[in-house]
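Quarterly update from the structural biology core.
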Amino acid sequence: GDLLRTIVASPAPVIAAVRGQCLGGGLELALACDMIVADETAQFALPEIKLGVFPPAGAALLPVRVGASRASELVLTGETWSASKAASAGLVRRVFTALRFEASLEEWLEADFLPRSAVALRHAAWAARRPILRALEHDLPEMERLYLNELMTHPDAEEGIRAFMEKRAPRWNSADNLRKMARG
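Predicted structure, tokenized:
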């Protein structure tokens, strides 16, 4: 939470430039930035659910960026989005070609940011960050409490992490309970 708050407190706009995979904690950090840009090969995912856990900061911040329904796609399934799908969902602002990524990023920054007043950019960034800041202040502590005090004490969390380390499919203790819940 502290690093996320540091990003949000920056006096200048913060842009996450993503090449390759942006997974789990990396995506959570990017979500605290003002914008995300990516090269065409970038992939975005919150795969924690596959380990029997969930991403607290991702669950708190992603709905602010893309809405609750689209956030649920990533948080509940661990699905991976391509750069183009992430852009369509509103997560990524610009997608640049991999070969010209740095040059295209520099051209975009020079065209869209350098001509602007630094003071106006600072205040505009602060104002635009308010929903993210509210999520960090109000939602994230509850998500972290749920994660640490309830989820991490459940055998499924231990099994998911152990299965990942042992490179095998997890054997969930709660699988039968989920089937019963689905039947009503």
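Strands lie at 15-18, 21-23, 35-39, 43-45, 80-82, 94-96.
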